[in-house]
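Internal tracking record. Fields below are filled automatically when a chain is submitted to the structure queue. Please do not edit lines marked as system-generated. If the sequence contains nonstandard residues, flag them in the REMARKS field before resubmitting.
Queue: standard
Priority: normal
Entity type: single polypeptide chain
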Amino acid sequence: MEILGKIFNSPARVKIMRLFLSNTNKVFTNKEIAKRSRINPDTIRREIKLLDSVGFIKKRSAGAVFNTSFKYIKEFEGLLISSDTLDKDAVVNIFKKVGRVKLLIISGVFIKNKESRVDILIVGDKMNKSKIEEGMRKIEAEMGIELVYATFTTKDFIYRLNMYDKLVRDVLDFPHQVIFQAKELSTQVLKKA
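SYSTEM-GENERATED OUTPUT FOLLOWS
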């Protein structure tokens, strides 16, 4: 993210461009852009004006929309969307602060699998729901896309794993990456996976 921000001279611009590239048919107001990207309104106005002037977006009365006839769509998608810009350690650090996390699995948009039911699976105990939601909003702001996530207590996850719960099986049986796993949970998950 920092490298792209330096290349494009603005981390805010990178976030806004990702938002539009990830939602090519959606019209966004400046207020929606600010909320989704976590950027202050003054910066939004300046960046929208610049992106409109280069033809990246089109201004409409209801807001702004991605310009699907933009000359460099493929190149920007490759650089801003398709590249692996996710820092897995940063994701682990975000969610380690939400409680006693035992397992973090990423799937879906993180591994370019649109068929996945969830993007992040979090297993742990004494987790703070508002901190989880805040962490999700941070990641969504960076990626420019809404994420689907599921949380389970350790006990509930193990029960669902043993009962071959469809959601848990769909995550574990299909492409995914375990980015954090506590030692006490590793034998249980490895046996069933």
